Amino acid sequence: MQRAAQRDVRAPKDQRAKRLRRALVCAAAVPAVLITAACSSDSGDGGAKDGGSAARGGDASARATGGASADPSASASPAVPAAAYRALPKPCAVLSKGALGDLVPKAGTSGKEGRSDDSSTRGSCSWSSLDNKGVKGSQFRWLNVSLLRFDSDANRGSGDAQAHTYFTQQVKDAQGVSGAKSVKWEAVAGTGDEATAVRYDLKKKEGAFKEQTVVTRVENVVVTVDYNGAGLAGEKTPDASDLTKAAEKAAKEAVAAVSAANGKGSGAGSGSGSADPGSGKDGAKSSGKPSATATEKGAGGASKAPSGGASPSTSASESAAAGN
C-alpha cells in the first residue's frame, strides 16, 4: 500500500516535470524563430535598399551620360571675326592739298569739321568754294567727306557685314534723292572693297547743280564723298563727268587715309566695285524709285544760297550716320 501511495505521489510530479520540460523547449524555440525571421526580414530590406540605391545610381548615371552626349554645337556660337580697322583719321586731313585745290579751289585747306560724339567711329568734314568772276558769274563747289566705322559685335555681326549693310543703304539714298533728274550710277574699280558713284542733276533756287556721291566700303569703314558744283549768275554749268572723276579721286584718297591710320596699305582693294548693291546694275535710274530716307539732298530746304557761306547740298551720309 505504501508503495502504491508513493507511485501515486510520483506520477503527478513526473507529469509536472514533463510539462515543464516541454514549456522550456518551446520557450527556447520561440526566440530562435524570431531571430530567424528578423534576419530574413533584414536581408530582404537590405536587398530592396541596395536595389533602390542601384536604381538611383543608374538614373544618375543615365542623366550624366545623357548630358555628356548632348550636342555641344547647340549652345556654342561661332566667334565673330574682329574688325580690321580700329581707328579713323582726322576727317579734315584725309585729302591732300593738291586734291583740295582741284576740288574746291577757293576753299583753302581748312575744312569745317562736323560734330561727333565719338571720333573713333565717325567723323566728317566739308569745304565750300566760290570763285567769283564778277559780271561773268561764279563757279561754286561744295565737298563733304564722311567716315563711319563699325565694330564687330556678337549680336549685330562682324564689322564688315555691318559696313556692307550701311554701304548699300547709302547708295540707295543717293539714288533716291527727291527732285533728282537724270540719275545714273556706276561701279568704281580699285577703290576699297566695293564702291559706287551716283550722279544726278538737281534744280535749286540758286541754279542748276551737278551732284555726285561716291560711296566706298573698305573693310569695316564706309567713306562717303558728296561733291556738287554749279555755275551761278550766268556762269557755265560744270561738266558732270569731270565732277564725278574728281569725286572718285577724293574717295580714293580718303580710303588710303583710313588704311594709313590703321597701319595698313593703300586700301585700294581688289574688288571691281558695286554699282547697285540692290540690283547689281549700272546706268540710269530704274522706273521703280529706290527707298530713300529723310536725309534727302537738295529739296526740302537743304540748300542755302552760296553767298551765305553754307553748303547748297546736305550730305546724305552725314544725316544717315547721325541716325545710326
Query: What is the H/E order?
Result: HHEEEHEEEEHEH
Low-confidence stretches: 30-44, 46-55, 60-77, 278-324
Distance between the termini: 138 Å
What proportion of the residues is helical, as a percent range? Answer: 25-40%
Record field, number of beta strands = 8
Average pLDDT rating: 74
Note the total helix count: 5
- Count of separate structural domains: 2
- How would the global form be characterised? elongated
Describe the structure in brief.
This protein is α+β, with helices and mostly antiparallel strands and 324 residues long.
Structural overview:
There is one protein chain. The chain has 324 residues and is α+β, with helices and mostly antiparallel strands. It has two domains: 1-37; 91-322, no CATH class. The protein has five helices and eight strands. It has helices at residues 2-68, 97-103, 159-175, 240-261, 316-322, and strands at residues 112-113, 122-132, 138-149, 181-187, 194-204, 207-218, 221-232, 283-284. Strand 5 and strand 6 form a beta hairpin. Mean pLDDT is 74; it is low at 30-44, 46-55, 60-77 and 278-324.
